[in-house]
Design brief:
It contains seven helices and no strands. By secondary structure, it is an all-alpha fold. The chain is globular and about 70 Å long. It has helices at 2-15, 20-26, 33-40, 48-58, 71-81, 85-93, 100-122.
Length: 142
C-alpha cells in the first residue's frame, strides 16, 4: 500500500510540475519536503490527515491514492460539482482538433496561476523576518 500511495503521489506531483518543496509549501499546516520524498519512495505511510492535506494541495480526491478514481475522472467530477459540465462538454465536442494544444496550454496556465496564488498565501511577509546578511545585534563581547 505504501508504494501505491507513493507512486500515485509522485505521478500527480510530476504531472503538475511541482518539486517536492513546492508541494510541501502548498499543504495546509505545512509539511517537510523530505517527508514527501519518503512517502513517494514507500518508506513512510502518511496519516489520513496528511493525505487529505496533500490531496487538497494537489486538487484531487483522497480516493485517487487508493485507485478509486483516475485524474481525468477527478477533473470531470470537479466540473460536474461546479455545475458547468454540460457547458464544457458541449464546447469540447465542437472544438477543432487544431485548437486542442491551445486549450491544454490554457488549462496549464490556469493551474500554474492557482499554484502560485496558493504558494503566495503560505509565504511569510517579506519584512517580517531578518535576513542573514542584515545588520543586527552583535554577539561579540563588548
Amino acid at each position: 500500500m505504501n508504494c501505491d500511495i507513493g507512486h500515485a503521489l509522485k505521478r500527480l506531483r510530476s504531472e503538475r510540475g511541482l518539486a517536492q518543496k513546492d508541494l510541501a509549501a502548498l499543504v495546509s499546516g505545512g509539511l517537510d519536503y523530505t517527508y514527501i520524498g519518503k512517502i513517494e519512495r514507500g518508506e513512510q505511510l502518511p496519516s489520513l490527515k496528511i493525505l487529505i492535506g496533500i490531496s487538497e494541495a494537489l486538487g484531487v480526491p483522497v480516493s485517487i491514492f487508493f485507485g478509486g478514481e483516475s485524474v481525468a475522472e477527478a477533473a470531470r467530477l470537479r466540473v460536474v460539482q461546479a455545475g458547468k459540465a454540460g457547458e464544457l462538454e458541449k464546447e469540447l465536442r465542437v472544438l477543432h482538433p487544431d485548437d486542442l494544444p491551445l486549450v491544454v496550454e490554457i488549462v496549464r496556465l490556469l493551474n500554474r496561476h492557482r499554484r502560485a496564488e496558493r504558494k503566495k498565501a503560505y509565504q511569510t511577509p517579506a519584512g517580517s523576518l531578518p535576513l542573514a546578511a542584515e545588520d543586527g545585534p552583535s554577539y561579540s563581547k563588548p
